[in-house]
Amino acid sequence: MVGASALAVAPKHRILVVGDSLSAEYGLRRGTGWVALLEKKLAAEKVAASVVNASISGDTTSGGRARLPALLQTHRPNLVVIELGANDALRGLPLALTQENLAAMTRAAQQVDARVVLLGMQVPPNYGRQYAERFARVFADVATAHRAAMVPFLLKGVADAPDSLKWFQADRIHPLEAAHPRMLANVWPTLKKALR
């Protein structure tokens, strides 16, 4: 039997982050990525929440879709943050597949009464304007169709900054530690609203 004191400290919100290297602290010191910063932000704002970071470097929307049912069952989140899609673009996977996977993940989370926040991604200009526009629209279309919340671009102020190279590791793909507070600042307003 759970005592009253245990119930009092039980988090009101259970947040599950399903992402790729952008959320998995690739190349960073542990505890410095935007998800770890989110935990600190929630504590500072006195929001009773626990955060599970189930992000895996290199993951695609297909990988996330396959992993999600077990994650939902294990962690029973009431808010799911989906940060996937960049690796689909890097691997040249069909946009229709990316969209269907994101939609399936959103539906699966909503079926267990979890709210969903999609973190939008954009591709570099060398992919061509038409592809870049279609890729960005995938996230918006899924969010609209399933009434999910959405952050338009996780790397706003980082990848599209005039001095963007200074925000990235040597591979020019993964943001430096200094970029992660900006990433959290992009996510926080939407996430805070979803927690209400």
Ends: how far apart?
Answer: 29 Å
By CATH, the topology is: Rossmann fold
Order of helices and strands: HEHEHEHHEHEH
- How many beta-strand segments? 5
Helix content: 40-55%
- CATH class wording: Alpha Beta
Largest sheet: 5 strands, parallel
Mean pLDDT: 94
Helix-and-strand structural type? alpha/beta
Keywords:
alpha/beta, Rossmann fold, 44% helix, globular
Describe the structure.
The structure is a single chain. The chain is α/β, with parallel strands linked by helices and 196 residues long. It has one domain (11-194): Rossmann fold, CATH 3.40.50.1110. Helices cover 44% and strands 13% of the residues. Strands 2-1-3-4-5 form a five-stranded parallel β-sheet, sandwiched between helices. Helix 2 packs across helix 7 (180-194), helix 3 runs parallel beside helix 5 and helix 5 runs parallel beside helix 6. The protein is globular, with a radius of gyration of 17 Å. The two termini are 29 Å apart.
Structure summarized in a few sentences:
The chain has 196 residues and is α/β, with parallel strands linked by helices. The protein is built from 7 helices and 5 strands.
Write the layout of secondary structure elements.
Elements: H1 4-9, E1 13-19, H2 34-44, E2 49-53, H3 61-75, E3 79-83, H4 86-90, H5 95-111, E4 115-119, H6 129-145, E5 149-151, H7 180-194
Parallel strand pairs: 1-2, 1-3, 3-4, 4-5
Helix pairs in contact: 2-7, 3-5, 5-6
